[in-house]
TrEMBL record:
Name used for this protein in its record: Sulfotransferase
MF annotations from Gene Ontology: sulfotransferase activity
Domain Sulfotransferase: 46-296
Record keywords: Cytoplasm, Transferase
Location within or outside the cell: Cytoplasm
GO CC term, one of those recorded: cytoplasm
Entry-linked PANTHER family: SULFOTRANSFERASE SULT (PTHR11783)
InterPro entries: P-loop_NTPase, Sulfotransferase_dom
Enzyme Commission number, as recorded: 2.8.2.-
Family, per entry: Belongs to the sulfotransferase 1 family.
């Protein structure tokens, strides 16, 4: 997609469709629901790599790390296209003339790296059948929520989040796109017992990027020099990615993503929820959290 073509979208200021429609009890955009048969029947391949996350968990960051690994630290190669064109977002449908993730994925030569936010039970079965590798990244609930709230304000394809108070309620009840955060992180956590899934945490990546990138290298059976590894750490840091137009989503027209409301690369910090939650909201959230996360071995850090 050329930038000229994208600008056409900017001129076309009709409001985008933000209708939602459930699939199997999970809230999705209407366009995803309408395309569901095709998405469900997507044919994965054994050499596909899937980056799976709940929304706002650090997907784009992980995509950039993976791309830099696959291109052995060659920055120019990693700037060949926007994140969403390098790694098709499987279930996402963009307004024409932009490509839908599914169409891009089908056209893309192997080996492909793909992105999804689907909960584990909704992943197209071919990924399990083909034993494709999956990297899952999880981020603590409160920072995910705050990031999701600001993203919903600036992304004109998502439903209006209302006030933060209202969004906290919707998030706790799983009444947000891609469903319950709690079920998502737990479902993928359990799936790693039966499938090649590298389960990473945003907070660990922030605290010790070298260690987490090394885990990805091992999982992908790659070996890179110390020099390239350091280059990857630098070029995938928040400050550098924020300035990288191929990774910061600024090439999309403001009629889709309005960075003047809230930038895509917003804060990139564990613990930012503390600047948003009131004491009362926090207490209520924690109480509910304990119930929803009872019985799992999965734990999160809400600050580092
Ligand atoms: S999406 O739209 O669901 O794919 O969003 P996703 O990429 O998963 O998450 C966006 C949040 O990740 C932050 N981010 C980063 N944090 C640290 N380091 C790097 N390099 C980085 N890149 C992206 C981004 O700022 C969003 O988080 P918030 O808290 O809103 O800043």
């Amino acid at each position: 997609m050329s930038l000229e073509k994208m600008n056409y979208l900017q001129l076309n200021e009709e409001p985008l469709n933000t209708e939602t429609k459930e699939i199997n009890g999970i809230l999705m955009t209407k366009t995803i629901s309408d395309n569901w048969d095709k998405i469900w029947n997507f044919q994965a391949k054994p050499d596909d790599l899937l980056i799976a996350t709940y929304a706002k968990a650090g997907t784009t960051w992980t995509q950039e790390i993976v791309d830099m690994i696959q291109n052995e630290g060659d920055i120019k190669k990693c700037q060949r296209a926007n994140t969403f064109d390098r790694h098709p977002f499987l279930e996402w449908v963009l307004p024409p003339p932009l490509n839908s993730g599914l169409d891009l994925a089908i056209k893309m030569p192997s080996p492909r790296t793909l992105k999804t936010h689907l909960p584990v039970q909704m992943l197209p079965p071919s990924f399990w059948e083909q034993n494709s590798k999956i990297i899952y990244v999880a981020r603590n609930a409160k920072d995910s929520l705050v990031s999701y709230y600001h993203f919903s304000r600036m992304n004109k394809m998502l439903p209006d989040p209302g006030t933060l108070e209202e969004f906290i309620e919707e998030f706790m009840n799983g009444r947000v796109l891609w469903g319950s955060w709690y079920d998502h992180v737990k479902g993928w956590w359990d799936a790693k017992e039966k499938h090649p899934i590298l389960y990473l945490f945003y907070e660990d990546m922030k605290e010790d990027p070298k260690q987490e990138i090394q885990k990805i290298l091992k999982f992908l059976e790659k070996d890179l020099s110390e020099e390239i590894l350091n280059k990857i750490i630098y070029h995938t840091s928040f400050d550098i990615m924020k300035e990288n137009p191929m990774a910061n989503y600024t090439t999309l027209p403001s009629s889709i993503l309005d960075h003047s409301i809230s930038p895509f690369m917003r804060k990139g910090m564990p613990g930012d929820w503390k600047n948003h939650f009131t004491v009362a909201q926090n207490e209520k959230f924690d109480e509910d959290y304990k119930k929803k996360m009872a019985g799992t071995t999965l734990t999160f850090r809400t600050e580092i």
